[in-house]
Amino acid sequence: MIAHEIAPGWQLETLRYERRPFAGPDGKPVEGLHAAWIWLDNPSEMNAYTTQALREIVIAMRRASDDPRAVAVVLTGVGDRAFCAGGNTREYATVYAGYPARYRQYMRLFNDAVTAILSVDKPVICRVNGLRVGGGQEIGMACDFSVAQDLARFGQAGPKHGSAPDGGATDFLPLFVGMERAMESCTLCEPWSAHKAHRLGLLTEIVPALRVDGELRPNPLVETERFVDDKTGTIVHGEPLTGARLEEGKKLLARGKVDLGPLDAAVDRLVGRLAATMPDCLARTIESLRKHKLAHWDKNKESSRAWLSLNMMTEGKAGFRAFHYKPGGKREVDFLMLRRRLAEGATWDDALLAELGVPDRREP
After folding, report:
1. Mean local confidence (pLDDT), 180-200
2. Same domain (yes/no): 293, 346
3. Residues 269 and 334 in one domain
């Protein structure tokens, strides 16, 4: 058969690519078919994608799309701490902060990676094995399905660290959860539990991952019972626990171990269900539904790329260097000081960064 890969034979360096069997209706592995699993492999940095990883996402997605035996694509991360924490802040701070032309080319790669996910001729499942924030949340939302272990957290971080969530969140999130919830998530940067994300419509399915004394337990740090507070009328399912219940939850969490077996089983079941459809009709249906994402993504991605690049001379430069270099674990600038100094007429220069306690370090 003729192959149509853009880089046949390319050896991936930062990703893992696996052709993995899935079970049929009889529970046995299906012969002659598989799912293409693509793993972000940078667990020491919470699977944050590097410049090289973005190149490889494009190649891996095209490889899976061109594979006639692949029923579906599974995008995930190595380990149980994070699916993806977004862009690699080490690279942002040392290579891109202060270099807008450089960052513009980086954002071309990021945009191509998101578009590659949205262009696969197979359904793409995001296997959320842990934290999914920032650009990780954005590439996750580009996928067609998201199946998560229920200790995972979801959200954006841009306005806290010198960026805007214009790599897809401002395009996709309102389609999932509505404008008000999207506004809350993108501006306040307060993470959601998997239970809350599922309740709001961001996820296809969640499964427990904490095993205590041999028994699977739901996330002990959030309200997992589905009810509405009688006094306030507030939906509390998925919200963080407080007080004594939170302390009890932390103790239970410390006693347990993360078991991603149920997550893998849920992903396998979804692949099997997708396989039980007409392939071309399934592909067409997915393409038609993706149009709602693409309508926003294609309209905004180039102007967003330009703005994010220029922002690397001001708030991006300050925010990412603070995140990477600031001593004492204080990874944010003094927001109130910054606002006061800008209101007083301060300009974005090295003196202002010094006032904010941001070290002036860079690589050529």
Report:
1. 97
2. no
3. no
Containing structural domain, residue 34: 15-209+259-311
Q: What is the pTM of this model?
A: 0.95
Domain boundary among 296, 311, 326: 311
Residue 290 amino acid letter: R
Q: Report the side by side order of strands in the sheet with 145-149.
A: 15-20, 34-40, 70-77, 124-128, 145-149, 205-207
Q: In the numeric block, which tokens belong to residue 9?
A: 């034979």
Domain assignment of residue 240, yes or no: no
pLDDT (tens digit per residue) in 308-339: 999 999 999 999 999 988 766 678 999 999 99
Residues with Cβ within 8 Å of residue 252, at least 6 apart in sequence: 210, 212, 217, 220
Identify whether 29 is part of a domain: yes
Structural contact between residues 237 and 227, judged by C-beta atoms closer than 8 angstroms? yes
